[in-house]
């Protein structure tokens, strides 16, 4: 759920850093260049003097206690993801409950039994009736959350380079605060009178309009790129990824206990309050990092080039699309174009399965195993932790010890996904559904291996455009996947509720076929593809 923004914004940060390094090489000492540099700073609204900027740059590259403010971004993202996963399952459970009471008008006692174990046949029948309707609400939410981020993904990087990172961070965190605040209000009202679960879509609107996960990921990774040195940057990016997963695990682990001790309204209020606290920290303590980038020497420009840059820095500039599509479809030597698109297809398959199965998986668990919220969130916690460990240990053992190629490791990762999907489809007991986690231990290695393939066959100056298109597609794919999985689940609910997992397995087999095609293509030019074949 969080891979596509990270891929896009990492490349934006890297390309921005590359431009600065080129500027260092081409810098001259002429007075005209100094004038152009000053003009560029004014165009970006820089309120600092040259000496202040130099002091700020020195502060970043020299350890001081005050430099700790540049490391606050990772804890704030951890808080955001904690709040997200704290309420994720609880919100789905609440929507199912309100669908039962407000839409189908079942009595409150029967509807509360939907989330308990050892349900009667009457309760199971109610669950079968309620779930397809609730699935449509989940699908609609997913669709709304896909459209706007797909649009933002094409423009938000340029906007950030012109106006700064901090405004985007504050905007995104504010959107999430409003999201959970509105959910808490709707949930509280539902405790006093019957209220349609469709009112929860009111919370999705500010969250989506303000960019959602795309916005904060772009801003956070660009911020990290601005304030870290070349030596620090890989470690900072690793810490950032770790913060995301730790936040998700903590939220999932805490959700069941907090919900059991309180109620849904309290859980949503805690999420809103947590993100509001993080937003205040962003406003008060985290500085604008763009000034540090403006302190770097800028290449000499002509008047025409300056005017052109001003135009392309507009938020909605069609030339961004044209350049991206031209780069992604132009003819390339050594079968590179085919390899690029086969790899992109593999990445899209992963998003398709995740985007589709996430919509109905909680419903499937309730129908098949009748788990409580606490039991599901514990399962979710383990399902996040095991792939993280599998990724770290797998890359060491398969790559370092066995010295397998990148493509081979990618195939093994998708095979792991296939095994996990088959086990989920036919699972009849708690042990079997937990074994599915073990079968999928290597699944998180699929995306890194595919990104490595792309990085090996695409020139550095074109990586940003390739990953930008990939991210836009990844934002749109759930728009298609969610309705498909919802329809399939609704049709097969009464006979084979786990059937959608077989669809997932088939998609992963298709990804394996694509990687095998890449393996065959690279064998035609073994010397050229040495980085991915060894």
Structural key phrases:
Growth Hormone, Chain: A; 2 domains; mainly alpha; disordered N terminus; 534 residues
What can you see in these coordinates?
With 534 residues, this protein is mostly helical. It has two domains: 1-313, Growth Hormone, Chain: A (Up-down Bundle), CATH 1.20.1250; 317-534, MFS general substrate transporter like domains (Growth Hormone, Chain: A). 79% of the residues lie in helices and 0% in strands. The protein contains 22 helices and no strands. The chain has helices spanning 3-26, 31-43, 50-61, 73-103, 108-112, 121-163, 166-190, 201-209, 212-227, 233-261, 264-284, 290-294, 303-312, 318-329, 336-369, 373-401, 406-426, 430-439, 446-457, 463-492, 499-523, 530-533. α17 (406-426) packs antiparallel against α18. The longest helix is centred in the first third of the chain and has 43 residues, at 121-163. It starts with a helix and ends with a helix.
In short:
This protein has 534 residues and is mainly alpha-helical. The chain has 22 helices and no strands.
């Amino acid at each position: 759920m969080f891979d596509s923004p990270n891929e896009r914004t990492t490349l934006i940060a890297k390309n921005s850093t590359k431009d600065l390094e080129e500027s260092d090489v081409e810098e001259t000492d002429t007075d005209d260049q100094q004038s152009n540099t000053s003009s560029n700073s004014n165009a970006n609204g820089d309120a600092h003097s040259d000496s202040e900027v130099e002091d700020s740059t020195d502060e970043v590259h020299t350890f001081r206690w005050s430099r700790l403010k540049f490391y606050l971004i990772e804890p704030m993202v951890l808080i955001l993801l904690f709040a997200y996963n704290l309420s994720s399952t609880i919100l789905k459970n609440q929507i199912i409950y309100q669908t039962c009471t407000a839409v189908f008008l079942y009595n409150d006692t029967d509807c509360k039994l939907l989330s308990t174990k050892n349900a009667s046949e009457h309760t199971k029948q109610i669950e079968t009736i309620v779930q397809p309707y609730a699935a449509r609400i989940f699908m609609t939410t997913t669709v709304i959350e896909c459209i706007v981020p797909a649009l933002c993904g094409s423009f938000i990087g340029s906007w950030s380079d012109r106006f700064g990172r901090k405004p985007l961070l504050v905007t995104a965190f504010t959107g999430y605060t409003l999201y959970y605040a509105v959910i808490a209000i709707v949930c509280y009202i539902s405790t006093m009178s019957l209220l349609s679960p469709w009112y929860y879509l009111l919370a999705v609107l500010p969250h989506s309009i303000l960019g959602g996960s795309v916005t904060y990921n772009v801003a956070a990774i660009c911020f990290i790129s601005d304030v870290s040195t070349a030596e620090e940057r890989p470690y900072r990016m690793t810490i950032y990824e770790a913060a995301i997963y730790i936040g998700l695990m903590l939220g999932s682990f805490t959700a069941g206990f907090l919900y059991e001790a309180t109620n849904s309204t309290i859980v949503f209020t805690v999420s809103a309050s947590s993100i509001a606290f993080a937003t205040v920290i962003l406003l008060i303590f985290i500085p604008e990092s763009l000034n540090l980038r403006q302190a770097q020497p800028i290449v000499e420009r002509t008047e025409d080039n300056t005017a052109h840059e001003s135009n392309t820095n507009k938020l909605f500039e069609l030339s961004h699309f044209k350049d991206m599509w031209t780069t992604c479809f132009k003819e390339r030597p050594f079968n590179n174009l085919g390899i690029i698109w086969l790899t992109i297809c593999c990445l899209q398959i992963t998003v398709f399965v995740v985007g589709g199965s996430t919509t109905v998986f909680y419903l499937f668990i309730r129908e098949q195993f009748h788990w409580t919220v606490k039991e599901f969130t514990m399962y979710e916690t383990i399902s996040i932790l095991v792939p993280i460990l599998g990724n770290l240990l797998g890359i060491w053992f398969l790559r370092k010890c066995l010295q397998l190629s990148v493509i081979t490791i990618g195939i093994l990762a998708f095979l792991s996904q296939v095994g996990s999907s088959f086990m989920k489809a036919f699972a009849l007991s708690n042990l079997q559904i937990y074994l599915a986690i073990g079968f999928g231990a290597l699944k998180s290695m699929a995306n890194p291996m595919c990104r490595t393939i792309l990085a090996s066959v695409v020139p550095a100056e074109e990586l940003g455009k390739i990953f930008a298109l990939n991210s836009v597609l990844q934002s749109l794919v759930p728009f298609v996947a969610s309705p498909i999985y919802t329809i399939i689940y609704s049709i097969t609910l009464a006979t084979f509720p786990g059937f959608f997992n077989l669809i997932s397995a088939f998609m992963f087999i298709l990804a394996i076929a694509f990687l095998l095609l890449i393996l065959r293509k690279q064998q035609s030019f073994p010397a050229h593809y040495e980085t991915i074949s060894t």
